[in-house]
């Protein structure tokens, strides 16, 4: 086990419905699949993996990452476009943040084009499908290792 603070992989509302929710957009893989892929991609690096449909719980998880984590991979889902409180919490985090979206939000309706989270994210990944999560984990590990913000 790496003597390292954990990577926090945080997922927002409705992602617990992966595999059943709009499979033409989000695919047929489940959140359990995503978690397994993320843990495999992390290797010996510790991971905190969470999903919530609640904005306050998601913000509490960001606060925990501020105190205990070294990097955040976040799929804030709908909170991406609506939550100033989430943006304010993420701005306090000193390590790298990857904003992740399963679909390419820029190919969707205009309401999905303006991310508040992007204002503080180190990097943004979108459109790779659920199978893009492990790529994001590997990228986050690299950013942490290089001391990026």
From TrEMBL:
EC number(s) on file: 4.2.1.10
Catalytic reaction equation(s): 3-dehydroquinate = 3-dehydroshikimate + H2O
Keyword list, A-Z: Amino-acid biosynthesis, Aromatic amino acid biosynthesis, Lyase
Entry's Gene Ontology BP terms: amino acid biosynthetic process; aromatic amino acid family biosynthetic process; chorismate biosynthetic process; quinate catabolic process
Domain of life: Bacteria
Biological pathway: Metabolic intermediate biosynthesis; chorismate biosynthesis; chorismate from D-erythrose 4-phosphate and phosphoenolpyruvate: step 3/7
Active-site residues, record numbering mapped to chain: 26 (proton acceptor), 101 (proton donor)
SUPFAM superfamilies named in the record: Type II 3-dehydroquinate dehydratase (SSF52304)
Top class in the EC scheme: lyase
Molecular function as annotated in GO: 3-dehydroquinate dehydratase activity
Residues that coordinate or bind substrate: 75, 88, 102-103
Site positions per UniProt: Transition state stabilizer: 21
Annotated family: Belongs to the type-II 3-dehydroquinase family.
Function: Catalyzes a trans-dehydration via an enolate intermediate.
Subunit structure: Homododecamer.
Protein name, UniProt field: 3-dehydroquinate dehydratase
Organism the protein comes from: Peteryoungia ipomoeae
GN (gene name): aroQ
């Amino acid at each position: 086990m790496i003597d390292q603070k954990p990577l926090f992989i945080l997922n927002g509302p409705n992602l617990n419905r992966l595999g059943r929710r709009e499979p033409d957009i989000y695919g047929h893989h489940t959140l359990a699949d995503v978690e397994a892929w993320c843990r495999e991609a992390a290797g010996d690096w510790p991971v905190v993996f969470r999903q919530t449909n609640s904005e306050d719980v998601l913000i509490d998880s960001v606060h925990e990452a501020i105190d205990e984590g070294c990097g955040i991979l976040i799929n804030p889902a709908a909170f991406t476009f609506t939550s100033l409180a989430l943006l304010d919490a993420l701005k306090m985090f000193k390590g790298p943040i990857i904003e992740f979206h399963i679909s390419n939000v820029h190919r969707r309706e205009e309401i999905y084009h303006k991310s508040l989270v992007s204002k503080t994210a180190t990097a943004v990944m979108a459109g790779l499908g659920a199978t893009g999560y492990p790529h994001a984990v590997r990228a986050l590990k690299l950013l942490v290792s290089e001391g990026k913000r």
